[in-house]
Amino acid sequence: VEMEEGEGDLAQPGDTLVVGYAGYFVDGVLFDSSSYNSEDGKMEFVLENPPFIPGWDSGMKVMNKDAKYQFIVPSEHAYGSQGQGIIPPYSTLIFVVKMFEIKPAQ
């Protein structure tokens, strides 16, 4: 779900992305956030290196700079029947993601 329109090229595998995010269970309970893991509330990573959950990686590819999206990720595109840490098996996850910067792969 597009919440804010961005501009420029879409993120591509191999690009370095700088995002802010919050991850929620479908009942609205927050389970993770980039603000938990960094002082500036941002996370930097290379898209698909290593891959994250399929729903996250796919969602990043429809975003460009300054875009904000809500991803509704069914369990089969998240952690499936195994779950992960505090995420129970078969959990649909919701991520709200803001793309701050896309650094093209060299």
What would a concise description of this structure say?
The chain is mostly beta strands and 106 residues long. Helices cover 10% and strands 36% of the residues.
User: Whole-number radius of gyration?
Assistant: 13 Å
**Count of helical regions:** 2
Q: Residue ranges: pLDDT <50 for 5 or more in a row? A: none
The helical percent reads 10-25%
* Portion in strands: 35-45%
Tertiary shape = globular
Largest sheet: 6 strands, antiparallel
Can you write the helix and strand succession as a string? Answer: EEEHEHEE
How far the N terminus sits from the C terminus, by CA atoms, comes to 30 Å
Q: Tell me, rounded to a whole number, the average pLDDT.
A: 96
User: By helix and strand content, what is the structural category?
Assistant: mainly beta
Number of strands: 6
Task: Note the quaternary state here.
Answer: single chain
Give the secondary structure arrangement, pairings included.
Blueprint (H helix, E strand, L loop, with lengths): L1 E3 L11 E10 L4 E4 H4 L5 E4 L7 H7 L7 E6 L19 E11 L3
Antiparallel strand pairs: 1-5, 2-3, 2-4, 2-6, 5-6
